[in-house]
Amino acid sequence: MIDLKNVSKTFTLHNQNSAVIEVINDVTLSVSAGECVALTGASGAGKSTLMRMIYGNYLTQAGQILIDGIDVVKAEPRDVIALRRETLGYVSQFLRVVPRVPTLDVVAEPLRAVGVSAEDAQARAEELLAKLNIPQRLWSLSPTTFSGGEQQRVNIARGFAHPYPAMLLDEPTASLDAANREVVLSLIDEAKARGAAIIGIFHDEAARVRVCDREIDVSQFTPGIAA
Ligand SMILES: Nc1ncnc2c1ncn2[C@@H]1O[C@H](COP(=O)(O)OP(=O)(O)OP(=O)(O)O)[C@@H](O)[C@H]1O
């Protein structure tokens, strides 16, 4: 489902005499349906960079990144948008808050975007918000004024609303309390059980051990850093 073949990346620092930094060198990895793989490695090893390359936020200079057969490296922007809408989800710790949109609509939006009826999308959004312990009195309000933890949980609800076949999780349990951390781990288990291929960064080692089937140490692909 997620296949990286000989993927490499450099950053060119245009404001520093066009210095070129090699960050990722020759990554080949593959994640099957129903599998969760953790990216590990020291700070600066390139975990977030690799995740952003897979999502198509960062350009990739060499190799192929195939998601359900579509090569993100070469895809047209409109194909990347379609891939993100239907196939590839991304859950970070932070919600991009749009003013005035009620929380229920924020969570239901990814489902509406793939053609789910308003009624069904709202039912799923309600189910997730309740599961993630967002008080019902907040559902009709915009999350703009919510606490950091509440915004994070709204973001997780939104990220898990549509059953994406492939998912990228960037520290999804960071700074959650024990009860909500459990909810997120159960959502990851459910996604695996329905066949999602998942790549995640988890500094929380217990969470990583619990939901991940394998670990890939990104340091081995970092030029100049010993694995
Ligand atoms: N936009 C950028 N421009 C230049 N260099 C960058 C950019 N983004 C990341 N880097 C560099 O790439 C390397 C990898 O960074 P990255 O954030 O991917 O590491 P990480 O493994 O996710 O670290 P952490 O665990 O601290 O989040 C670092 O040396 C960083 O300075």
Automatic annotation (TrEMBL):
<dbReference type="Pfam" id="PF00005">
    <property type="entry name" value="ABC_tran"/>
</dbReference>
<dbReference type="InterPro" id="IPR017871">
    <property type="entry name" value="ABC_transporter-like_CS"/>
</dbReference>
<feature type="domain" description="ABC transporter">
    <location>
        <begin position="2"/>
        <end position="226"/>
    </location>
</feature>
<comment type="similarity">
    <text>Belongs to the ABC transporter superfamily.</text>
</comment>
<dbReference type="GO" id="GO:0005524">
    <property type="term" value="F:ATP binding"/>
</dbReference>
<keyword id="KW-0067">ATP-binding</keyword>
<dbReference type="InterPro" id="IPR003439">
    <property type="entry name" value="ABC_transporter-like_ATP-bd"/>
</dbReference>
<keyword id="KW-0456">Lyase</keyword>
<dbReference type="GO" id="GO:0016829">
    <property type="term" value="F:lyase activity"/>
</dbReference>
<dbReference type="GO" id="GO:0016887">
    <property type="term" value="F:ATP hydrolysis activity"/>
</dbReference>
<dbReference type="InterPro" id="IPR003593">
    <property type="entry name" value="AAA+_ATPase"/>
</dbReference>
<dbReference type="InterPro" id="IPR012701">
    <property type="entry name" value="CP_lyase_PhnL"/>
</dbReference>
<protein>
    <submittedName>
        <fullName>Phosphonate C-P lyase system protein PhnL</fullName>
    </submittedName>
</protein>
<dbReference type="InterPro" id="IPR027417">
    <property type="entry name" value="P-loop_NTPase"/>
</dbReference>
<keyword id="KW-0547">Nucleotide-binding</keyword>
